[in-house]
Design brief:
This protein is α+β, with helices and mostly antiparallel strands and 185 residues long. The chain has one domain (3-184). It is built from four helices and four strands; from the N terminus they run H-E-E-H-H-E-E-H. The protein has helices at 3-52, 86-108, 113-136, 157-184; strands at residues 59-62, 65-72, 139-147, 150-151. The protein has a four-stranded antiparallel beta sheet with strand order 1-2-3-4. A hairpin with a 2-residue loop joins strand 3 and strand 4 (150-151). It is globular.
Length: 185
């Protein structure tokens, strides 16, 4: 192989790697865009709830759904809501740490589309709730699902996105597990 051919081969490989890197960066940006969309939808819905609802007064929507403005200083299901205030900063730091780790996972896992969509939903939801904690000291909840006198704990769009993302991750892992066991038989 002469020098010209070797140079051409090296340049072709570099061009191929650059195209791959650009493609990877575009997919990474798409997943970040999903997270930003979730964050925006969450914040817009919370702004609407704060602007249009009275604290603690249910507004009937459907026979199983109310809009009900509440502030949750704790975590899911009001876990640690009765704390003296330390939980605000604990959950803020925890949420920011999780967001950084999720961004790392998104970057490293770009080839796994379902995982990345799930992580994007979780990222957007986590950032939405972190933003609430920074601005209000608590998470703004306004969706009240109920049956008869039994009410699910109030939640928001961010919580929904986090749950859907977690369910997608679990579903994806089940699919992988069942796919491997079916192939091994």
């Amino acid at each position: 192989m002469d020098a010209v051919s070797a140079t051409y081969l090296v340049m072709a490989n570099i061009a191929c790697l650059r195209k791959r890197r650009i493609r990877m960066n575009l997919s990474f940006l798409r997943y970040l865009a999903i997270a930003i969309l979730v964050l925006l939808l969450d914040q817009l819905s919370k702004w609407s709830a704060l602007s249009n609802l009275q604290m603690g007064v249910p507004e009937p929507v459907l026979p199983f759904l109310n809009w009900l403005l509440l502030f949750n200083p704790g975590a899911a299901f009001s876990f640690l809501a009765q704390g003296s205030g330390w939980q605000r900063w604990f959950f803020t730091v925890l949420g920011l740490g999780a967001a950084i780790y999720i961004i790392y996972l998104l970057y490293k896992s770009q080839g796994e589309k379902m995982l990345c969509v799930a992580l994007s939903l979780i990222l957007g939801g986590a950032l939405g709730n972190v933003l609430d904690r920074i601005m209000f000291g608590a998470v703004v909840d306004f969706i009240d699902l109920y049956y008869a006198n039994w009410h699910w704990p109030a939640f928001n769009v961010a919580d929904s996105a986090i749950c859907i993302g977690a369910a997608l991750i679990i579903w994806g892992e089940f699919r992988k597990s069942f796919g491997k066991s079916a192939q091994s038989h």
